[in-house]
Design brief:
With 407 residues, the chain is α/β, with parallel strands linked by helices. The chain is built from 13 helices and 17 strands. The chain has 2 domains: 206 residues, Rossmann fold (3-Layer(aba) Sandwich); 155 residues, Rossmann fold, CATH 3.40.50. The protein is globular, with a radius of gyration of 22 Å.
Length: 407
Amino acid sequence: MKIRSIITGLALLPALLSQAHAQCKELTVGSAISLTGKYATDGTHSKNGYDYAVEKIREAGGVRIGGQCYNFRVIYYDDESKGDRGATLAERLINQDKVQYMLGPYSSGMVKAIAPVTEKYRIPMVEAEGASRSLFNKGYKYLFAVLSTSEQYLASAITLAAEKARETGKQPSSVKVAIAVENDPFSLDIRAGVLEDAAKFGMKVVVDEKLPRDLSDMSAILTKVKVHRPDVLIVSGHSKGAATAVRQIGEQKINTPMIALTHCEVADVVGKFGDAANGILCSTQWAETLSYSDPIFGSASEYERGFKKAYPDYANKSVPYQTAQASAAVYVLKDAFERANSLDKEKLRDAIAETDLSTFYGQIRFSENGNNIAKPMVMRQIQNGKYNVVAPSEFASHKLDWPRTPR
């Protein structure tokens, strides 16, 4: 009889859990995000990360505020990768949909367009995809970003190049650097960080170019790279720029010893270009091999496995860090709501500002300017089709292959 009772209880458990979830109220959050236009790929990754976190938090019992259970519901609008439309949609979310809390859009440029709107209405916005440091010197009080700022993305490649110069008996000042970036706030900040680090070592910048606006052809820049023979090539152009870079680097047989890009995973450069991507360094905010964890998502590797189960389209590729940090942004909101123990947006804003949260994505703690100051960037290298962490040394799972050896 006892065994039968246990079996009956287990059979009823899903229904009981479903009933408990049904008793939770809705907690509405808004997001204007790029589902079409040049940022559509990255925007979709971000939305999937938001949605996955919403479901995981629901499964874990929701958000507990004042003795009541809440489940997040996100209202999305497609900003079409256009800043003016993003700002208009933010106004719509706030004034028509009566949204009091926001999740950010994709890209620094889109955050730059929307942040003045959320500030005007004093709407707390936790964003995961706007890394430009220029976002955090304007005195915004309602903008918070879980990711590391953009000047950190590829600067570590310069440090690696200096280390390799010393290992071969040369001075770091002998290293020649080539830079090609998109003309947007994020990539221009990356350029600034690379230039600052190169100057510290006395390195010479031999190519310093802007990618064409449509990001579809950088062959003229790569011709200059062939002429000047740099030791390290830096490219930043979001996912479309990364795909163009790897394709044309392969086509033009660019043999630069060190090549470092942003957005390798979301551009799926391994899947699209195979061996041509081998040896390329890829900056990342997060990797599934890191030793981070939390009670909702588990470890970084458990997050990856769970996300791939929920989204089978990612089964045969790395989960992009854009997806992971989007999930982390939702987790920050849950944590802040529960600490504020209130739906009041001002109390929530103050709770977000006081965040000190360990997550599967890394530690999250905000400066007075709203940027995360607790988590480092990571550098991965594509080695035989795999993304392996090679820097910083305390996080490295593999040694750096240098010079780069495309197959």
